[in-house]
Amino acid sequence: MNILLIDPPFYRFFNYYNRYFPLGLSYLSSTLKKAGHRVTICDADCNRNSKGMDYARLPEKYRTYLKELKNPENPIIQEISQTFLEYQPDVIGVTVMTPKAASAFTIASLAKKYNRDCCVVFGGPHATLKADEILKSTKDVDFVVNGEGEVALLELVNTLHAKGSHFSAIRGVSYRQGDKIIHNATRSFIDNLDCLPFPDRESLLGSGTYTSEDMGLLMGSRGCPYSCSYCATQIWTRKVRYRSLQNILEEIKHVYLRYKTRQFTFKDDSFTVNRKRVMEFCNQLTDAGIKINWDCNTRVDLVDSELLRTMKKAGCNSIKVGIESGSERILKLMDKGITLERIKEASRLFREVGIHWTAYFMMGIPTETKEDVKKTLDLLYKIKPSFASIGVYEPFPGTKLFDVGVECGLVKGEMSYEDFFNRIPSDYYLREVNRRVDTMGHEDFITLENEVKEAFHTYNKGVARILERARSRSNVYLQNPRIFFNDIEKFLGWIR
Fold this sequence. Notes:
The protein is of the alpha/beta class. It folds into 2 domains: 2-183, Rossmann fold; 212-494, pyruvate-formate lyase- activating enzyme (Alpha-Beta Horseshoe), CATH 3.80.30.20. It is built from 19 helices and 15 strands. The strands form 3 sheets. It has a 7-stranded mixed β-sheet with strand order 2-1-3-4-5-6-7, with helices on both faces. Helix 13 (370-383) packs parallel to helix 16 (442-460). The chain starts with a strand and ends with a helix.
């Protein structure tokens, strides 16, 4: 069959930069192509000429997003419609994250205008958690794939290709049968991740617009053993499944040779959760003589001096960690399982070893007070990360904090189709758009939010932090000057 996989546009509507290629869709594509299907990947959120990078200020632009989604003359909307006409897909697969829901629904509508018989399949985090809501909201979506999609989507496409109409045996799929919505049994996760072909980077439309760094996105494991209350861990359960180190190294070599990539990014939820494995990976990477740089995500309680030094020697030049809050009470509410003392110790280790590190913070948690937020700002100045980002908590379905919000009367359990087009994404699932927290009035919260975001923005513009980031990426710049000039352009747009 002829299949078009789409990552819906979102950041493009604000002219914001969206790095990397859609990894999840690329895994689906390689699996489908291996089975003989024709696949094209449309990264409709790819925007290489953007100027914006301050994602903390992104919600200020959300109304532009909703306005342009309804504008049939918008060039992004027209581009998607033209893509349908050009590639004539039999099946259109759309990956859906909650903030992009309205965009995904728009694509489904455009798909049915292109060809009513074209099959539209939703997948991804939001689709997994809200399959029933999606299928009740619109007839433009024919199927929802829940959870890990490689095998389920392949079975669905094979059934459609055979002109079959019996979908009940396909685990992990939801669909309509007359007026009834059917949710098939859940599908077990893939235990042997090595059986999956490498992500299909070749089928990306406009592949020449990606930098070598964009092509360096990797995933060495799936799943997270932790249960942070703001994260939808129920999608993957708390089991971590690993690719073999040999399999990962083979992909690195392939991308290194094919795209001349020297900067890689691991998307694993907590890269250093298995310390022994990370040490082995670093040693094998060093022994193989592969001279690359790479970055990863981890937690402050999963690092130590020896591990960090080994990672740096093997090319790790940046680490991202979730700090979230400077309030012990809020950290406990988030089920982070970390303490302020451990945060301070980890920050000392990062500085001591000399690895660039990014700290992620959050505000607007249910029950959070002005004093709690002040503690977060105080912590920022104490731990002095290389870069710091803060966002306002948005209630995502499938999380413990979402349920807390429902209990507090701040959050509603479901959204209507119209809600996604009439509310900005940061207000999705709020019961009242002018009541985000239960400890202060809306105006007070907005004032506090603006003050904190401005403080973070000013902090990041410090000369020492700018130079630290440049130093961490110096090898990348030497290998590919284009990335250096891209970074300069993005930075100039960000500091405005």
